[in-house]
Amino acid sequence: VQLVESGGALVQPGGSLRLSCEASGFSFSDSVINWVRQAPGEDREWVSNIQTNGRTLYAESVKVRFTISRNNAINTVYLQMESVKPEDTAVYYCAKGCTWLGGNFQRCEYWGQGTQVTVSS
User: Fold this and answer.
1) In whole angstroms, what is the distance from residue 24 CA to residue 33 CA?
2) Any idea of the CA torsion for 9, 79, 37, 58, to the nearest 10 degrees?
């Protein structure tokens, strides 16, 4: 399993950014793909996922502002980030095999290397 993120950058508050996750080594179209982020000094926070049927879920903190999508033809998942805020600053990871317990995000089995997003003026 390989997950490779790209697209992280320095962006001003209110700006936009699109992250990409290129996947290989597994049946991509049969897999739920997640975005998880980690801010400095904080625990990892689940952000969003996209199901095999295209259904999407979002954390409350990013709902409406972020959009996840997938292109099964090229094994890629995207995270479109709009109206970004300083609190969106984090390393963003693409991940699969994630689990929850009692509605709380627990862990993921496979992770990419992460891409840094910094929101600052």
Assistant:
1) 12
2) 150
DSSP string computed for 30-90 = GS-EEEEEE-TTS-EEEEEEE-TTS-EEE-TTTTTTEEEEEEGGGTEEEEEE-S--GGG-E
Tokens of 20: 């990409």
Would you state the structure tokens that stand for residue 11, as one six-digit string? 């962006």
Q: What residue type is 111 in one-letter code? A: W
Place of tokens 């317990």: 101
pLDDT at position 102, please? Answer: 87
CA gap 117, 43 in Å, rounded: 16
List pLDDT tens digits, range 67-81: 999 999 999 999 999
Do residues 48 and 58 lie in contact, with contact meaning Cβ atoms separated by under 8 Å? Answer: yes
Tokens of 70: 């997938």
CB contact at 8 A, 90 and 38: yes
8 Å CB contact between 108 and 96: yes
Amino acid identity, position 35 = W
